[in-house]
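Form 12-C: Joint structure prediction
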Amino acid sequence: MSGDLTHDLAVVGGGPAGVAGALTAALAGRRVVLLDSGPRLGGQYFRHAHGASPEPRFARQAHALLQRADVLLGHQVWALAREDDGLVVHTHTRAGRQEVRARNVLIATGAHDRPLPFPGWTLPGVLTAGGAQALLKGENVLAGKRVAVAGTGPFLLPVAAGLARAGAHVVGLFEASGGLGLARHPVMALGKAGEAAGYALALAAHRVPYRRNHAVVAAHGDDELRAVTVAGLDRDWNVLGTEEVACDALATGYGFVPQLELALQLGCRTRADADGTPVVEVDARQRTSVPGVWAAGEPTGVGGWTLAEIEGRIAGLAVAGAREVPGLLRRRARLRAFAAALQAAYPVKAGWQSWLTEDTLVCRCEEVPLARVREARELGATDARSIKLLARPGMGWCQGRMCGFALSCLAGETQQPPRRPIAQPITLGALAEPPQKER
Ligand SMILES: Cc1cc2nc3c(=O)[nH]c(=O)nc-3n(C[C@H](O)[C@H](O)[C@H](O)COP(=O)(O)OP(=O)(O)OC[C@H]3O[C@@H](n4cnc5c(N)ncnc54)[C@H](O)[C@@H]3O)c2cc1C
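Section 2 - Result
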């Protein structure tokens, strides 16, 4: 199907939401192109190593999609723009810049990890929970031999279970939030009982301690991680008491940040999700506030792969002009309520700021310690953007993806949508190249 002129739909993102949206629209007879920066379809949940078989249900969807649509892998989409004849997707590949044109765009770009800084978090051996999971699923590589898993939220369960099943000694799962034990864990509810039971069994079989109201508040080592300080926390996450635990890897995560850059480039309206996270506003059929632009999956609110897939199907049907399927709308409503309940059960509490010392790096790319952030505040910077202009946190390679959430908390402001005119880091040379039109 290559060499087409304008497509009916360009989908950015080949995770559960993007693949479901693209396949649904293609099955309804629309000409579809899907672009993903990764080497394989699957996104975060269905990530698999080269040569390994993906989960069978997803494999069937991906196979069907490859028969019916253009699938462009290894394409980093760095901008979306509107021109007279439709929407233009600007991508960067090893072969150079390309432009793909379509009448509609579905943004299904997922989310990235949300880490919190603490003393020692820049040591080799300290990873985000998503990073440890991606290494394991995508490369069959264990993050370490003795691994601590820490942070908050249900995503820590599959990470700890996966590492333990793959042969790591998981020295503990330290969940900063309290109140809900594993048996009453929210993933037990709403059809997730089987999934949660699987994780609980894996943790029990491998004797992984599950400790609520506990967090890793410091990491120690000279050139690499050798131990972490685990603290008991009060309900606001202030430290009650500490102990040192030996480990050579730490997987840590405090939720996810939806990737909104492409939607913001086109001017899509955002809203604050249940926990205050900015997400793309969509209507009942996953339409954004901008005509011809749709969004599904994590950019519209973090809620897991099942919700992402359903949202993708609803968007695909809508783009194709097909009728709504009431069953899908009901399942989406149920899963969204479940996602809101999870966000309420796992809030990030302000006490984490007391774990930091003056020399703790808040922004690791630009090496900005807490002291410089405080200085900027004393000089009159009252929000994250002014702090960034004075002290440079968020100006480095990751453009605030790692430190943006923490910096907003330290500035005492509500979370703001990201301001990144270029969605993916690309070189100036690549930007200056003349793009190849259409494929
Ligand atoms: C690092 C990480 C690991 C996770 N692992 C798990 C897990 O093991 N279990 C679990 O239940 N949930 C996991 N999650 C949560 C998971 O994201 C969702 O449940 C589910 O995968 C969401 O589906 P999605 O289609 O919305 O997004 P994703 O699955 O994240 O798919 C988004 C896709 O968009 C692509 N993309 C993003 N931006 C661009 C761009 N500019 N150009 C081109 N392509 C782009 C990405 O490469 C990715 O393939 C993980 C999340 C993260 C961030």
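Section 3 - Comments
Residues 146 and 169 are 5 Å apart (CA to CA). The two ends are 10 Å apart (CA to CA).
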